[in-house]
Write a structure and sequence with these properties.
The protein is α+β, with helices and mostly antiparallel strands. It contains 9 helices and 6 strands; from the N terminus they run αααααββααβαββαβ. The chain is elongated and about 85 Å long.
Length: 242
């Protein structure tokens, strides 16, 4: 920034402008990653959240500048109260991007990224540039680099499995367990139901495996069994990804 421009806008205004622009840039960086993965809160949302947090902290940091009717010695500044208010507001915004779709909960990572973006805005607003930059790089690493690591981590796969037969052609429970076991699944929970006035018999179970790809193979096998009149395999226990 040139000396002439600094003289026009003043040193304090230049500091505030730098913090606002810096907060907007930090939020935009995180928002770009979210937009790339088609998340509901992306580039513009994160930039606005970070800039708004910085603006609100500037209100507190420069409180003496606008409270001109009060004697300076009477002003008691507590920036943490403003930070607490920002965190409360971000909670409502974060809740708005979390939604349940069937058995899957989506939006948790986006809500967390909005929350951390507001924290970065607070840091920039009070002038703590180094923690803000470190936090930005850490956040981008978690959202991008950690994604690749998470993909390679071993994890158990759970699915709700419903299997329906006609009452006169019910597969024995032992055969059902053997069938799902042959595809690498274990039965974590099993319940039995007689439905539609006794016409149909239904097994309801929770399947567990470390090979989620086997669910498709199991489905293909069930399609070939004439005694199976209806089935469903619904993955469960999955948080928002990516």
């Amino acid at each position: 920034m040139s000396v002439g421009l600094l003289a026009v806008i003043g040193d304090e205004n230049a500091v505030m402008l730098a913090r606002i622009c810096g907060a907007t840039a930090v939020g935009a960086l995180i928002g770009l990653e979210r937009t790339f993965h088609a998340r509901p809160a992306g580039f513009r949302t994160h930039a606005l959240v970070c800039a708004a947090s910085a603006l609100l902290m500037l209100v507190t940091v420069y409180q003496a500048e606008w409270m001109t009717q009060v004697a300076p010695e009477a002003i008691r500044t507590d920036p943490t109260r403003m930070a607490q208010g920002i965190m409360t507001g971000i909670g409502f915004l974060g809740a708005g991007v979390i939604f349940k779709e069937g058995l899957t909960v989506r939006g948790l990572t986006t809500a967390a990224s909005i929350w951390v973006t507001s924290v970065l805005g607070i840091l920039v607003g009070i002038g703590l540039w180094m923690p803000a930059l470190m936090g930005t790089f850490a956040t981008l690493a978690v959202l991008s680099v950690f994604r690749a690591i998470e993909n390679r981590l071993p994890a158990e796969f759970y699915a709700h499995h419903h299997l329906r037969f006609r009452r006169e052609a019910v597969m024995d429970e032992g055969e059902v367990r053997k069938l799902v076991g042959s595809y690498g699944f274990t039965v974590a929970h099993l319940s039995l139901r007689l439905i539609e006035e006794g016409k149909f018999f239904e097994y309801r179970m929770v399947l567990r495996s470390r090979a989620p790809g086997q669910a498709r193979a199991l489905a293909q096998h069930l399609l070939k069994l004439p005694e199976v009149i209806e089935f469903r395999i619904s993955p469960t226990g999955i948080n928002e990804y990516p």
